[in-house]
Amino acid sequence: MKKVLLRLAVYLLSLVVFVGGLGFLGYSHTQKEFYNALREEAVPSLEGVTIPPHDPAKPTVAVVLGDSSITTEDFDFLIPYTLLSMTEAYNVYAVAPDKDLKALSGGLDVVPHYTYAELDALLGKDPDVIVVPFMPIIAEATYAPTREWIQKHANSDTTFLSICGGSGNLADAGLLKGKSAASHWQAIPSLRVFYPDTTWVEDVRYVHEGNTLTSSGQTAGIDAVLHLISQQVGEPTAASIAKQISYPNYEFVANPKVEPFVLDYKFSTYILNSTFRWQKKQMGVLLYDGMEELALSSIFDSYADTGTTRVRTISRTMTPLTTKHHLNIVARHTIENAPQLDKMIIPGGDAPSLAHDDIKFWNEKGKADVTLLIHADSPNRYVFEAPLEDLAKQEDLLTARHGVKRLEYRFDNIKLEGSALPLMTYAHLLLTLALAFFTAFFIDRKFIAKKSICCLHKRTL
């Protein structure tokens, strides 16, 4: 009986060491590639960076960037920045503790327009709207200036808009005590533990209570921003912007009530991909002047946070580029020094004209198995649809379906075609299980079974 228990312990321990250990290392590495994708390349000169002109007659929106030791979630930052800029009714600025280059999740680098102190000096009052994206609170000392700046302006005159997990940052600053709030469905269980003095709501796309407006996950942030625009600028403007971006869920702006998402088998696919997908697709995204911020966000959120794909930013030069709405971005690789890629994505419906010379140079010097102008063939589609469809073809249906759910996309306009299962991920998992089994089997035969045979032989003698 003792030997049976010993064998069982050996096999269980081997399973824990190999599956648990390798799984932990794989998951940690995957999360770091997306949520801690800080720049390791040399920072180029940031001289000549432009700042949108300030109009004192317009209300001012400050879209927060975290400090340089963390990433700011790219969707949470880019979507409100873009939609509020499209109204032309606001001054919209990217603000941060300092003017150093800041990383968005997945590896997109942004140059802040102003520091917190500079914006305060420019306005001489509180910003009218402060947008708070998700920023992981890893180091208290470096995050403290962001928390303190949010708290400094916590009054009824400023509207605080959080996107997705950004509601956790608002709760951390004490702005959601005694209030109801929304967040990404995957984050709500932990938020209830850390911030029990907030009522976390799962069955709405956004919650507007007093001067706080919190959205649930990803695309629900669009509903929250359009709701704010409808309230402050006018519903016709909100409807016009929804039409311009071909947004298919505009009905949620007026009625945010939905059936809540729950954890299911699709989430296990995300975990397994993040844990056991060791060979990730190497993808580039071409940056160019005048590009659409929403199109850019669609690449990072559709591919980079699936556990299957590493995304790298590439441009003709390392000088800062200016997007359609005056955001300054910097690539991490030039076309000539970019690594070999499995795929190069060129986002934006206007890419063939806006990036004509860049595309030509890429075709001459770039190194990729496939180059895809992902929005060019259907410039009037909602920008997240084509990338999610391509993800299904590149990977599998389970991975793409979780991507749709993670983005909280609630429209049936996406046609997913591809392999049914993430076969490479399952192969790596089976290989790990086999390694654990054969290691335990070797220990069993070498030490436990051999000792049993020796003992039996001695009793026979």
From TrEMBL:
Q: Which UniProt keywords apply?
A: Membrane, Transmembrane, Transmembrane helix
Q: Where are the transmembrane segments?
A: 423-443
Q: Which residues form the DJ-1/PfpI domain?
A: 71-230
Q: Which Pfam families match?
A: DJ-1_PfpI
* InterPro entries in the record: Class_I_gatase-like (IPR029062), DJ-1/PfpI (IPR002818), INH-QAR (IPR052158)
> Mind telling me what this protein is named?
DJ-1/PfpI family protein
